[in-house]
Design goal:
By secondary structure, this protein is an all-alpha fold. Helix content is about 55%, strand content about 0%. The protein contains six helices and no strands. Helix 4 runs antiparallel to helix 6. The protein is globular.
């Protein structure tokens, strides 16, 4: 995900720019293990993006997501990105990968 984000930024995709490496890591960390253990890498990424998109639609589904440290919430606090930025990133990644 980090490499994909970097390639997207290199290609000038604006939704990738605000997504820091740590924030990206936190999104992956909040993905269930069964998705991360899919049978191949392409399926893993596709299912992870679907999961993230679905959960980012409402505060109820992702408001309790934490950072990897489990000390801070991902979308709360002065230094956090918004759900809207995360949604824009996930949608841009889906499109960049040309998933249907």
């Amino acid at each position: 995900m980090k490499n994909m984000r970097n390639k997207m930024e290199d290609e000038g995709i604006p939704q990738a720019k605000p997504i820091a490496s740590f924030f990206n890591e936190c999104l992956v960390w909040n993905t269930p293990d069964q998705i991360l253990l899919a049978s191949n890498w392409n399926l893993t990424v596709q299912q992870m993006l679907v999961h993230l998109w679905d959960h980012l639609q409402s505060e109820e589904k992702c408001g309790g997501w934490g950072q990897v440290s489990e000390l801070l919430y991902l979308f709360k606090g002065p230094n956090s990105l918004s759900r809207e930025q995360a949604k824009a990133w996930v949608k841009a990644a889906w499109n960049w990968l040309d998933y249907k």
